[in-house]
Amino acid sequence: MTQKGVTLNTNSHKIKFARSFIRTLLKMRKNAPSSSSIEEIRKRSQRIKIAAYSSMAHAVGSRRAWSRAILFKLRNRARHHGMMRRRSMKKRVIKNDPPGDQSKANKLRQLVPGGKAMDMCSLLEETAHYIRCLSTQVKVMQTIADHFSK
After folding, report:
1. Rounded to whole angstroms, how far apart are CA atoms 56 and 68?
2. What is the pLDDT of residues 5-37, one digit of tens each?
């Protein structure tokens, strides 16, 4: 596709992500409740976050371990969502482990989806790709926000 001398690769991860993400946002907008309570805003924010991760993982496909891990987690979440109605709202506890308790590799394994099952070489390769994709995700989302805030 050419526009003003610029060639766009319609198969790029960036374009696939943007199309999928915008499509999801438009669906969310159609189904948006009329109220703007704090709870509704929190739910909408969570849905946008899930849509962003899902769109990026779908754009990358199953070639990467991190995208397979995200897609697996989202499928399981959707499958169990109907079965598990809110039991009780528990606050998430974040541990602040002392620096000597975990190696840097183990900390990285926790950050990269699917990283727990990877050897060091694969972990570093997946981490680099995941960071590039997150960077692309931020740029696309910023472009969308800029476009719609005019």
Report:
1. 11
2. 555 566 688 899 999 999 998 888 887 777 778
User: What would you report as the CA-atom Rg of the chain, rounded to the nearest whole angstrom?
Assistant: 18
In sequence order, the 6+-apart residues with CB closer than 8 A to the CB of 145 are none
- The parent domain of residue 112 ranges over 9-29+41-80+104-148
8 Å CB contact between 105 and 120:
yes
Between CA 99 and CA 29 the distance in angstroms is 44
Query: How many angstroms separate the CA atoms of 28 and 124, rounded?
Result: 35
Under 8 Å between Cβ of 92 and 49: no
Segment 36-74, tens digit of pLDDT:
788 888 988 999 999 999 999 999 998 899 999 999 998
Determine, yes or no, domain membership for 129.
yes
Is residue 71, in this structure, part of any structural domain at all?
yes
- Tell me whether residue 86 is in a domain: no
